[in-house]
């Protein structure tokens, strides 16, 4: 036995343990009550950009607008009319208050963010004339407490309207001029780690976003532009129990945006005015249809779904 041996207390254990909850479980407590995994569950919160100075003076050809001049006050009124429909229904309407003054397309907020159960995937737009809009959307999301899971980076391109929820475990993501393979892979990674199966949809050369071709009406009914949606996607939807309604008019799909509606709840939608054949088909199938005039908004080659970024459903 050694003499003069000191008895030194052992180093204590950490005695601190992590909170073993998921991000989805924590989001309401630490961020805000946000999250989306459906295109049709009861609409609770949206993000929009009311047209500001950016709509007052621009080159229509450069930003892909119609050559027909935009009535500035009317486009703002029509935007307010849409927002009122949402708020009257009970949904919270948040706004992107700041934006570049050379970005009239910023009104189309759906393109700039894609919501998941855990928060937002921030887009990286394809058009040079839209690049940078996402910075101000990020500011708006942070201000109201929506977590941003990732910003599409590197050489990735992705716009929010290139994604469509089928159900909590199924999502369609399209590639084309507004989403390349790098952007697709970045989105797919985020969704797959949440337990979501991602179905790839190739956009036709004549179209840029899913919501111009296909849009769910309820959890078991979808409207499609049949000549433009791949068979594999329709086959998947049918196997999941969806009733497929085929848009009756190509003119309404392409010119008056008959597929570009917003579901307030399953079987209850807001449809752009001027789509009588589409409205008749929907109503014949038991859908409650409200219409709204967005003639000025359509001059930007987008419609209701385009201007509405979902933040909370269900």
Automatic annotation (TrEMBL):
Which SUPFAM superfamilies does the annotation name? Pentein
Q: What is the protein name for this chain?
A: Amidinotransferase
What biological-process GO terms show up in the record?
L-arginine deiminase pathway
Q: State any single GO MF term.
A: arginine deiminase activity
